[in-house]
Design a protein that fits this description.
467 residues, Immunoglobulin-like, eight-stranded mixed sheet, seven-stranded mixed sheet, flat
Length: 467
């Protein structure tokens, strides 16, 4: 009879942003987007006596090591006490799990070390205050490698990560009488050749009408300040641009070079216009019935995550209305992942000009509910030691999602693809490995399972053992 520890796991879907940042809104759109702070919770694990699962032994894996230094490119000085993140990059074939992010702090000389690194492919990332986020290796930054390949027992050293200072813009939002305006949302738009402007950063004015934007990439930009105003006549937008311009097209561009600090940039709010609006209904694509409590969001086309986009929940009859938008390109999203057993995300790109009617037909998504069980002989894994992952086999969809272990009893994957899926686990600690994946009593380790729309897959157990 063996001891089985049921290990809590909670849901965290991997996004396209790599560096998990503590200041949401300042990172690029691509990459992996998700940050968690792991705390070790050893108390409260449920111990069950059973003879149904036997430990699986394996040969000892010899972990590797990654070490290097972080340096400011402008001052050629090391960065001390800086967080460096390590991201696992699973191969397309042969792996079914993503290891959780790991992080370390640089020492007084800007040096960092990741010990006990499992064999595999990795990427580093760092984003110090006032400097642009830097992934390493990154071919777009001139790095010769696509990733760091860690073999058993290998030591990768001599890494030098140079980080560039970002630009900064600060100033005041004023009315036409020269009085400061608080509560205005200041947006920075990246002007691109032969393409629509992209929202690059946002900030809100304080009581003195002051705003501050940092970590700005070298580019050409336009600033816009806006605030929603509602009265009996409807919903309006108070708007202004830098240098008292009347529109985004007529505003003179602001040139930002690496490390530029632009101060006293004044935005004058000089006109009010009626808000654009979007109305519609969200229904179940299979039954045609309306879906209440679906989150509908209008995200201005962006490079960085929008600060506070217009959003609303659908009513009991599935209808919604969005206001508080100026003309421009938006992504309209209908998120029903938390409705019933979950629905696939609906998204449409729209050039907003006035009043629009946009409907969504959402398809029921599979729901996967699972637990993880430790069947080894050593100490049970702690939060951050492993994650549970789904790998999908489909075209034009996310390749997979990952859920780090953080101390809760069960985890759920909602809104996932109705496509063949493999369930696995990735490990940050070399002490552990995946033993088996079971659905009830069926062994599905490394097997593809066909998921159907609206299916609820329960009884999934992730068995983890010692190396």
């Amino acid at each position: 009879m063996k001891m089985i520890f049921i290990l809590p796991i909670t849901n965290l879907t991997a996004s396209s942003t790599f560096l998990p940042n503590e200041k949401k809104g300042s990172e690029a759109r691509s990459g992996w987007s998700v940050v968690v702070t792991f705390t070790i919770i050893l108390a409260g694990w449920l111990t069950i006596l059973t003879g149904s699962a036997e430990p699986v032994s394996a040969a000892q894996v010899h972990p590797g090591r990654i070490e290097g230094i972080v340096v400011s490119a402008d001052k050629d000085m090391p960065f001390a006490h800086l967080t460096v993140w390590l991201r696992h990059k699973p191969e397309d074939k042969g792996q079914t799990g993503w290891a959780p992010f790991r992080k370390v702090q640089t020492d007084e000389r800007g040096r960092f070390v990741f010990d006990q690194v499992n064999p595999g492919r990795y990427q580093l990332s760092v984003g110090p205050e006032g400097y642009l986020t830097r992934a390493y290796p990154d071919p777009n930054q001139g790095d010769p490698l696509q990733y760091l390949e860690v073999d058993e027992g290998a030591v990768i050293s001599g890494i030098r990560i140079n980080v560039q200072p970002g630009g900064k813009i600060s100033g005041t939002v004023l009315n036409q009488r020269g009085e400061p305006l608080s509560g205005f949302n200041v947006k920075l738009f990246h002007l691109r050749a032969a393409a629509e402007p992209y929202l690059a950063a946002e900030a809100e004015t304080d009581r003195s009408g002051h705003y501050y934007l940092d970590k700005i990439l070298p580019n050409r930009y336009v600033l816009r300040a806006e605030r929603i105003k509602r009265d009996k006549a409807g919903t309006w937008m108070e708007v202004g641009y830098q240098r008292d311009a009347a529109s985004l097209d007529s505003a003179p561009p602001i040139e930002v070079s690496p490390g530029d600090v632009l101060t006293n940039v004044v935005i004058t709010v000089n006109h009010t216009m009626r808000s654009a609006s979007i109305t519609g209904i969200v229904i179940n694509a299979q039954t045609g019935k309306p879906l209440p409590q679906v989150l509908v969001v209008a995200e201005e086309v962006w490079e960085r995550s929008p600060r506070n986009p217009p959003k609303t929940l659908t009513a009991a009859d599935g209808t919604y209305r969005l206001e508080g938008m100026l003309p421009g390109p938006y992504f309209i999203k209908a998120d029903g992942r938390e409705v019933e057993n979950g629905y696939k995300l609906g998204a449409k790109k729209l050039l907003v000009t006035g009043e629009h009617i946009i409907g969504f037909e959402l398809t029921p998504a599979p729901l996967i509910v699972a637990t993880a069980q430790y069947i080894g002989q050593d100490r049970p894994p702690a939060p951050g030691d492993f994650s549970v992952s789904l790998q999908f086999d489909c075209r034009n969809c996310e390749t997979g999602v990952s859920t780090p272990y953080r101390g809760q009893e069960t985890f759920e994957f909602r809104g996932v693809e109705a496509a063949p899926v493999r369930i696995g686990a990735g490990f940050a600690s070399p002490r552990y490995k995946l033993a088996r994946v079971l659905v009830n009593d069926e062994d599905i380790t490394d097997k593809w399972i066909n998921l159907r729309p609206g299916e609820k897959l329960t009884g999934v157990r992730i068995l983890i053992t010692d190396q």
